[in-house]
Write a structure and sequence with these properties.
The protein contains 11 helices and 8 strands. The chain is α/β, with parallel strands linked by helices. The protein folds into 2 domains: 177 residues, NAD(P)-binding Rossmann-like Domain (Rossmann fold, 3-Layer(aba) Sandwich); 79 residues, Orthogonal Bundle (N-(1-d-carboxylethyl)-l-norvaline Dehydrogenase, domain 2), CATH 1.10.1040. The chain is globular. The N and C termini lie far apart (47 Å). The structure holds nicotinamide-adenine-dinucleotide. The site of nicotinamide-adenine-dinucleotide (NAD) has 23 residues, from helix 1 and helix 4.
Amino acid sequence: MARKLAVIGAGLMGSGIAQVSAQAGWDVVLRDVTDAALRRGKDGIEASFAKFVAKGRLDSAVAEQALARITTTTDMDAAADADIVVEAVFEKVEIKQEIFRTLDGLVKDDAVLASNTSAIPITKIAAATRRPERVVGAHFFSPVPMMQLCELVRGYKTSDETLASARAFAEDIGKTCIVVNRDVAGFVTTRLISALVVEAAKLHESGVASAEDIDIACKLGFGHAMGPLATADLTGVDILLHATENIYTESQDEKFAPPESMRRMVDAGDIGRKSGQGFYKH
Ligand SMILES: NC(=O)c1ccc[n+]([C@@H]2O[C@H](COP(=O)([O-])OP(=O)(O)OC[C@H]3O[C@@H](n4cnc5c(N)ncnc54)[C@H](O)[C@@H]3O)[C@@H](O)[C@H]2O)c1
C-alpha cells in the first residue's frame, strides 16, 4: 500500500492525523501557512507521544521513529508526490476550495484528496477540482490518537476506487470506518447527535425531565458514555446549534428544528464548559 501522506493544516486535527499515520509507518509531510503553526503542531505531537510513552503504552524508540517520519513545511509543493492528502484547515469553504484547486494542479493523477471537514458538503469542495471522483470526506474525531472512528463521506462524484483507497488508509492507521453513501448535511454522526440533543433540549425546555435525568437515561438506559446535554456542554451549545441549524436548513426536517431555549442560551452566552454555564454549571 502507498505510504506517503500529506496533511494540510497542523492544528488540532491535522497534527493528530499526522501523528497516528507516522506511528503506523507512513511518511508524513505536514503543511501549514506559518512556521509558528507548524511548531505548535509538532510540539503537540511530541507531547502526545511523550504521554503515551510515560503511560507505558508506546515504546520510546517507536515514538522517536514516528517523529522522524514527520517533516513540516510551509511549501504546498511538498504534497506533490503524496499518495493521499488529508486537508484539515479552518472550516471555511472558500479556504478549502482554494487548497483543493491548488492540490489539483500539483498531485499525482491517482492521489486521493480527502477533507476532514465536519460539515461542508464534500461535493462543494470536490467541485473546485477537475477530478471530483478522487475527492472524499475523511472525518476523523478528536482527539485523533484516542478516537477510533473515521466517517468516510462520498461526494456526488466520488469513485468506488477513491472510497476504497481512503478506507484502506484509515484502517491502516488503526481507525474503523463508516461510509456515508450520500453527501447529506451533517453526514451520519452530526445528524445523530443533533437529533438527540434537539429532543433532549426540548424535553428539558418543557420541564418533562431535568438535564441530569435525561443524561442518566441515555447513560444507564442505552449505555452511552455521556448524555446528550453533557455532550452539548462539552462540544459547545453554540457549535451544536449551528450544526443543527445547517442540517435543518438543508433537510427541512422538523426533527432538526432547534428549540427556542437553545437559541436563547447561546444569545445569553451560556454555551457550555467554555463559558462556565450551559445545561449544567461548570
Ligand atoms: N476540532 C474538532 O473536534 C474537529 C473534529 C472533526 C473535524 N474537524 C474539522 O477539522 C478541520 C480542522 O479543525 P481543527 O480543529 O484542527 O482546526 P485548528 O484551528 O486547530 O487548525 C487549523 C489549522 O489550519 C491552518 N491553516 C489555515 N489555512 C491554511 C492553509 N491555507 N494551508 C495550510 N494550513 C492552513 C491554520 O494555521 C491552523 O493551524 C475543520 O474542517 C474542522 O471542522 C474538527
